[in-house]
Every structure is written in structure tokens, then in C-alpha cells.
Amino acid sequence: MARPTFPPDLIRLQNDWIRAYDDLAQRSPADSATVPRRRLLLLSCRLINHPHWSGPAEWRAARTELRRQARTAER
């Protein structure tokens, strides 16, 4: 099976999401999480509504591969 290819802006968006998630996960309980949560929510909405996806089924099928390619491109 051929690996799907993703547009560079979608991979960058996924990388931003990964960094925002990691930032939120590494915060201490004493730190306010409002801003990072809002950022993560915004990025999640942008990922789901990116023009690359033609429908919800394709989104679910390719999500894991997008994460893998984004992590590879980050290095």
C-alpha cells in the first residue's frame, strides 16, 4: 500500500499541534493551562478542516500516517 502524501502546510500544522500538546502536557498543575488549551483547540480545528481532507473517513484513515510524517519531518 502506498503511503499518502500530505501538503507541507498540513505537516507544519501537525507539527505545531504536537508542540502545543507537548507544551500542555509538560506544564505543572500550578501553571495556568487556558492559553495552551485554546491553542491546541484552535490547531485541532484547523487540522480537521484543512482542505486536504475530502471527508471524515479519509481523515481517520490517514491521521496516524500524518503524525508519523510530521514527526519525521521535524527532525
From TrEMBL:
<protein>
    <submittedName>
        <fullName>Uncharacterized protein</fullName>
    </submittedName>
</protein>
